Amino acid sequence: MKRGFGRHGKKIPEFRTEEEEVRFWDEHDSMEFIEELEPVEIELSPELEDKILSKRELKKPITLRLKPSQIEAVKKIAVKKGLPYQTLIGMWITEKINTENMNY
Question: Which InterPro entries match (predicted)?
Answer without folding.
Answer: CopG_antitoxin
